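The step that takes the researchers longest sounds almost clerical: writing a folded protein down as plain text. The outcome of that step, for a single protein, is printed below.
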Amino acid sequence: MDKKIKFAVIGAGHIGKRHVEMICKSEEAELSALIDIKPKEQLGLNNFSLPFFTSLNDFLKSNIEVDVINIATPNGLHAAQAMQCLDKNLHVVIEKPLALKKQDAESLINKARDVDKHIFTVMQNRYSPPSAWLKKIITENILGKIFMVQINCYWNRDERYYQPGSWHGNKQLDGGTLFTQFSHFIDIMYWVFGDVQNIKSKLCNFNHHHLTEFEDSGLVNFDFINGGIGCINYSTSVWDKNFESSMTIIAENGSVKIGGQYMDTVEYCHVKNYTMPDLHPTNPGNDYGTYKGSAANHHYVIKNIIDVLKQRAAITTNGFEGLKVVDIIERIYNANIKTD
């Protein structure tokens, strides 16, 4: 119980550096190695004194002692790299998405079960106070029957994000807008309201033809298996900067809206016989210089990993929940209405 948890991180981009920072700040964690295909100089890691490897294979052959591998590489590499790590009997932490195909996600879960190791999927928006509050009032049935849930995700992703030579925009490595930009909000929807069925979607590429191999916008409608209807409206075609990510719930006992750029504030709460508590401020979105991403809650993720491995807590987002996000996104893409 007193032993530090030893981590290695593969992928030293914006998110990978965030993992490294949070691991190094934890008194119960130790960073043992970093892996990236780019040289340290190009990554701005000249002062990085720990073992550095340019391939996962080289690291795994080194036999450096680690407990956990954090995978922060392009989306299309997650499943294969996680399988390699599980083959070496290591726990894995996988940035969203768990995989780009439901079948690959299922294979990872089965493998983790066979080798008795954990899969931690990174869905840090669950730690935002408005998300945790919404989960609580739904679990306690304060809103009663759910009638409608509307999710709006309107962000900017332009040439500043989809740069030449980047994996962003590549279908095989990126997967699509729902995987890279908005899977966090699909996760919150599934976490709070459960699975969906009868999906209908219409996807468009308005102004990213020269930047991406997939859609930039979509309208999605569905039914919740637990009752009620829902929709997701999303776009990365917003000019210049992110507009909003919001979730509006119309229910038997009242209405709620969580909004802001990152679904980080409660904008409306009018519920029968209920007084909303004061919530702690939400951490701002991760700042990547030219654009912003979802909430900067990775310190909670690292803490949960340590707590689970020291048998003090349950996994916040397990492999099955990561699989369900992949499954829902895959079904949305498969349900796209083709137009000439």
Summary: The first helix runs from residue 14 to 25. The domain at 126-295 is CATH 3.30.360.10 (Dihydrodipicolinate Reductase; domain 2). The radius of gyration is 20 Å. The chain is about 30% helix and 25% strand.
